[in-house]
Amino acid sequence: MPYITAWTSEVMSEVAVVVRGGRIAYVDERAGDRDGAGVLWTRVGFSPGVGVPEFKSVHSLRQREAMRRRLCQVCGTPCGRSALWMLSQEEYESAEGPWPAPVMTAHPPVCPGCVERSGRLCPHLRKGYVVLRPRRVAPAAISGVLYQPTSTGLKAGAPTTIAHDDPRTRWLRAAQLHVTLEDYEVINLGNMLTTGSQARPRSGPGVSVSVSGLP
Prior knowledge:
Elements lengths: L4 E3 L9 E4 L2 E4 L13 E2 L11 E6 L1 H10 L15 E4 H5 L9 E3 L9 H7 L7 E22 L2 E11 L8 E19 L19 E2 L4
């Protein structure tokens, strides 16, 4: 079972959102509700393995921790310098440009041992995927619900994604962290029909992943 998958037992806690200190806050805010940059995160239960897995839902806390600590999104073990990213053909080709343009993703890394299984079983990879080894991973954006203060109180907007350094993050109840993969090598094209991106694998020694700035 993928480490970042949410379970039916991990329901979102109902808690009032208020304005405090010029930003949104929980009325009963506790340690762990915010990340290192002060962004408020969606409060969820934590009981993996209890109930029924919700394959289409991502557990926000485990997703964030997998990004920050380079944990495999499938087995949950630390990837370290072996961290790889598996992107669907559609996600890879929607990057800023052809290889080697930076790619933004909300998918945490996978360890080498989980690549084959992921490519075979993951629904969003069935139409083709690419495996990348980036030299740099940088914080890019945060998804969540953006609140707007009004004369009658806070108004919750539609789910949105904004840059991680956008000043509006003080009004965001975050749900997923996005990173940008930079200076990467394409190490595998799994069932991928190469079209506009014309992805080209590069040869060479293994590289270490430099990560900085993740809250």
